[in-house]
């Protein structure tokens, strides 16, 4: 039996309109205010039909983003759905961040003290990351049918990072088999760890955007972008 202390207020009556608009979000949202505890509870209905599934999915969210319907995206109905999905995959993201952080620290440790055990360990990590990257790209291409430019850039940069890492780890061993072009080999082996560390660090920052500290990475990105914009404008002037 409902407590008289709770006052349930429908924002609007529910309907069957499938278009994601503010009216649609309002129809599927309810707000309950508890006057005794001075609290407010939001309730959302995401079920369209038992056979059709939920009203929201990544395709609908992409349509909203492509249509720049930021007012709809900021609606509690949408934000709560996104937040719940992020919570559901929080463990996976946490493991991803920890694994790549360990990989980065291992790579940095390898620069100062290298041995065959670390060579194989870094190679195993790189192989696993490469396998998941290819799997991610394959699923993305098959499911979405269209790949964004940013995804292609990120994919290529990841491939470059893994390639530079493997080259840094194993090229010195390959170079040790002969004595030709020693100066060139020294330059290559001197540059490779720098490239590998910097690219791995950039990848780590990109991955950590999904962590609780992601907001600070976004802030630094915006600041650096603003500095770059000002510098370019002054040089052109």
From TrEMBL:
GO biological process: monoatomic ion transmembrane transport
Domain of life: Eukaryota
Keywords: ANK repeat, Glycoprotein, Ion channel, Ion transport, Membrane, Repeat, Transmembrane, Transmembrane helix, Transport
TM helices/strands, residue ranges: 90-110, 116-135, 147-171, 187-206
Keyword Transport applies: yes
GO terms under cellular component: transmembrane transporter complex
InterPro entries: TRP_cation_channel (IPR052076)
GO molecular function, one term: transmembrane transporter activity
Protein name from the UniProt record: Uncharacterized protein
Upper lineage: Eukaryota, Metazoa, Ecdysozoa, Nematoda, Chromadorea
